[in-house]
Amino acid sequence: MTPTLGWDDKIAVLHLGEDENRFSAGFLDAVTEHLDEIERAGAQGLVTTAGGKFYTNGLDLDWLGAHAEQTRDYVARVQALLARVLTFPMPTAAAITGHAFGAGAMLAMAHDVRVMRADRGFFCFPEVDIRIPFTDGMAALIQAKLTPRAAVASMTTGRRFGGDEAAEFGIVDATAAERQVTEAATGLLRPLGGKDPGTLGAIKQTMFRAATRALTDV
């Protein structure tokens, strides 16, 4: 399923899909186009959400296995998306309605706030177990958002965090019941409407300059 864009008043709701929502070339194209549209429309917030069992399972490893010669360009595209969301010039929230693994979990990390389903689904950086070291940019993104304790607990262990554990470690900001995750994420952004995008974007660029440089210097 191709990502689709909807609206809750002036808050853009980007639905990533109903399956594993892996970062295929088509997925990356669609998300980029929607982000362009959201900026042009003058949205007052961005929520990303999904249906089914997954928020997103991250990198399209099957495609990478068949196109190893394109790994560098592919990773650069993924990291460019992470950098864009990290510094997006409006309040952002990830509604983690299902599993978020690897680069999918990094996408959630790139948002300002995260709300995770309380009863089911895991948040996980499995890199240590699948023998894929973090790039400098991906590590910088995660460490820019997490405390050292949470970064070590999540990055070096491959641990699968349920909603309550993720909230305990500060990986997510809140949890909600199955059908209330997107609503809760939108609710966190609603009081923040009306922020000047130029000012907010500049603040994020300053806050996350090191991570952004690491993500885009590939």
TrEMBL record:
CDD domains: crotonase-like (cd06558). The keyword Lipid metabolism applies. The keyword Lipid metabolism applies. Pfam families: ECH_1. Signal peptide: none annotated. GO terms for biological process: fatty acid beta-oxidation. GO terms for molecular function: delta(3)-delta(2)-enoyl-CoA isomerase activity. Keywords: Lipid metabolism. This is Enoyl-CoA hydratase. It comes from Mycobacterium europaeum. The lineage of its organism: Bacteria, Bacillati, Actinomycetota, Actinomycetes, Mycobacteriales.
